[in-house]
Amino acid sequence: MEPVKIGILGLGTVGGGTVNVLGRNAGEITRRAGRAINVHMASVRSLDKPRICDTEGMLLTTDPFEIVNAPDIDVVVELIGGSTLAKDLVLSAIRQGKHVVTANKALIAEHGNEIFSAAQAQGVTVAFEAAVAGGIPVIKALREGLAGNTIKWLAGIINGTSNFILTEMRDKGRSFDDVLAEAQKLGYAEADPTFDVEGIDAAHKLTILASIAFGIPLKFDQAYTEGMRELTTQDVEDAADLGFRIKHLGIARRAAGGIELRVHPTLIPERRLIANVDGVMNAILVNADAVGPTLYYGAGAGAEPTASAVVADLVDVVRALTTDPENRVPHLAFQADALEDIPVLPIEDVDTAYFLRLLAKDQPGVLATVTKILGEHGISIEAIVQKAPHEHGDVVPIVILTHNVIEKSLNSALAEIAGLNEIQDSIKRIRVEYLEAD
Ligand code: HSE
Asked: Are 215 and 151 in contact (CB under 8 A)?
């Protein structure tokens, strides 16, 4: 059979890795796909730049639309990132009946509903395994491997840069900025690293995971994101004293009134496997009704780990070229006309436990006042620890772990506590998740 001709938009880290993997494993890939995959064209920003891959035999262009418009290209692989030019290119490729493989999480999370509906109308596939957690085949696992389950919740370390920062802060006491600079040098951080540390990158990935898990449209604009810049080594140490680790988690949960969709720093028990996922590695824990908890772990970024997912998608697309579009695996796991528009819960309605740290004047009755206010708001205490007094001044840190509470009740209680004369400075609060399989 004739090789399938593909065009790659962008020959940077992931594009170069994809060319290398396709070349090195060509024999195995052809045996799996049933046809050879030939990189016929590639677009680059500059023709003279040194690259990590060999471009011999490829037609190189600086105009990505030349690839999208080329009649002999069967599949377009979009690896330029961003959601403006990439969106135009992908929609244009779809309109011309080409299949698309993309690693672009922002594009799928923000414009996926429009892109999938265009693809559906044209009978083409848009594959995006590489958009979430790099080389971990978690989209495939959720969409196909767990297809018999009702997914209850998933929780993931889905940004390697923020996990690397937290790990180095905990293990080496390094400062936030120092570790971030190293993550940028290693090539893990986004072009704009605020996407990593403010949770936007993780929210893009979580949005995609939640849609596939629950069969809902992509709702990135409703995801709650809280960054990790405010975390201190003190927080990390206090959490460790209580038997917890702090991770920047993306959590999607099916709750009574809707879907929880949130990214924020989270205390998790240190005995959980996912609490021990360190450095730039990613992991996603999925709790499903039939199988129970399953954990997907691996490299969430990097040239060849991400290329691994891109090439797996290419193999899927090549296999699907001859199948009836109606009988392909649906983009968001559930049939397009069977998606349910379940509301995303506002963060104030989320039910979770809390770690609190307050600085209180070291005088009789303060603790009793604080616990009374918590009690009046229906907040039950799991643990309370008064730490050694501060070296300077007459204040003591008090660390409290609460049981689960609806966030708006906690907000009211904390507003009252913060108003007490005996309480100083702002109150630190970090959500706690036990990640029990139940
Ligand atoms: N900036 C991302 C990360 C790259 O740190 O995980 C992979 O999406």
From this structure: no
